[in-house]
Design a protein that fits this description.
By secondary structure, the protein is of the alpha/beta class. Helix content is 37%, strand content 25%. It has 14 helices and 17 strands. The termini are far apart. L-homoserine binds next to helix 7. L-homoserine (HSE) binds next to helix 7.
Length: 408
């Protein structure tokens, strides 16, 4: 039978793909317009004793040599061996579908080029926003207008941790363990909490809206490890929630992308997103604001996005998708220090007056955490905030935290 599928990497997402495929097989086949089956599952771990034992192989070459395999699903994650396997599958004339955001963010332009050269598709709907249909709608929106800004909660694990910590007073470690048990976290969860996972995702969205590859090492990235209960209390007193936000802005000078914790209105589109949910705000010149919302991580939501790409790949046959972008030199993007936002500043209570005068306090926050003062500034560039923090240090003012305030 033609249109056979091979899954490479049988972890959380790969096993979710098999589970959802066999649960919804007839509907998937109907939408794809073709009979489909999973012929191979490639993994270094044996699948003996599982329902998939007869599909298991360690040898990826078997998949490449089998002309019946039309689609390779890469759910290995990471760069090695996923990059090499994806290249070889595309070069062998097989569509490749992936949830691997690290690979797409790092080598997407090259893999898209190889796919075009071999008249097949490289599709990655599951790489951003888990089960939320985001990549295809975003790309299609571009057909009619210009996307000027994207801002989102792009990492379910950190959103889950922050929600559990601040709503249930759960410890960081316990909340992280729970996220891992639910299959949300990366194999190495430092990629979640240090913002690297969100960075990869904003790179993919930036590349899509820019049409040129935006590399992770060009995007300023801060994680949530420095966020304290006092930050959240002060933000909350001012009407804000603290969230890890990946964002990109595009104008005639180019594009500025970054990832950082930031204050967003508690009643706004991003501030009320809790637990593992992701939310992505897309702002277009003609489109206005569009919000995407749903489960951003987890086994079956991500698997469902993978399978939607399988349907697209099979239905497209030899018609290659125009979804994608071109390669670009590194370091062509704008400087994040030029980005201008209001700031929330926390200082010891004794420094309230001096810090308020230095940073230009516009709005005092009450109540501030015990023994502290907190206030909101007017709009300041990142560069100006760095200068003011350096001056504060010279004047003996201890800045406890300086967090961006975003108007979403
Ligand atoms: N670790 C990721 C997250 C998985 O928590 O969002 C989905 O990409």
């Amino acid at each position: 039978m033609k249109n056979q599928i091979a899954i490479i990497g049988f972890g959380t997402v790969g096993s979710g793909v098999a589970e959802v495929f066999y649960k919804n097989r007839s509907a998937i086949e109907k939408k794809a317009g073709s009979c489909l089956d999973i012929k191979y599952i490639v993994d270094i771990r044996s699948l003996e004793g599982t329902p998939y034992a007869n599909k298991w192989t360690k040898d990826f070459q078997v998949v490449l040599d089998d002309e019946d395999v039309a689609v390779v699903i890469e759910t290995i994650g990471g760069l090695t061996p996923a990059f090499d396997f994806s290249k070889r599958a595309l070069q062998a004339g097989k569509h490749v579908v992936t949830s691997n955001k690290e690979l797409v963010a790092t080598h997407g332009a090259e893999l898209l080029k190889i796919a075009r050269e071999h008249n097949v598709n490289y599709l990655f709907e599951a790489s951003v926003g888990g089960g939320i249909p985001l990549i295809h709608p975003l790309y299609q929106c571009l057909g009619a207008g210009d996307i000027t800004e994207v801002a989102g909660i792009l990492n379910g694990t950190t959103n889950f941790i922050m929600t559990r910590m601040f709503e249930d007073q759960m410890s960081f470690e316990d909340a992280l363990k729970m996220a891992q048990a639910n299959g949300y976290a990366e194999a190495n969860p430092s990629a979640d909490v240090e913002g690297k996972d969100a960075c990869r995702k904003i790179c993919i969205l930036s590349s899509l809206i820019y049409g040129k590859h935006v590399y992770p090492d060009e995007v300023h990235t801060e994680g949530i490890t420095g966020i304290t209960l006092e930050d959240v209390q002060a933000a909350s007193a001012a009407g804000y929630a603290v969230r890890l936000i990946g964002r990109v802005k595009k104008d005639s000078n180019g594009l500025i992308a970054m990832v950082s914790p930031a204050l967003v209105s508690k009643k706004g589109q991003l501030g009320n997103i809790t637990d593992v949910f992701n939310g992505v705000l897309v702002r277009g010149s003609d489109l206005g604001d569009v919000m995407f919302y749903g489960r951003g991580a987890g086994k079956t939501p991500t698997a469902s996005a993978v399978l939607s790409d399988v349907i697209d790949a099979v239905r497209a046959g030899g018609n290659i998708s125009i979804l994608g972008w071109e390669d670009a030199p590194h370091n062509t993007n704008g400087d994040y220090l030029d980005d201008v936002t209001r700031m929330m500043i926390r200082v010891p209570a004794s420094a309230e007056k001096a810090a308020g005068a230095l940073f230009g306090a516009e709005e005092a926050i009450t109540p501030a955490p015990a023994g502290e003062a907190a206030f909101l500034t007017g709009p300041l560039s990142g560069r100006k905030v760095q200068e003011l923090c350096a001056q504060a240090k010279e004047q003996g003012i201890e800045v406890l935290s300086a967090l961006r305030v975003l108007e979403y």
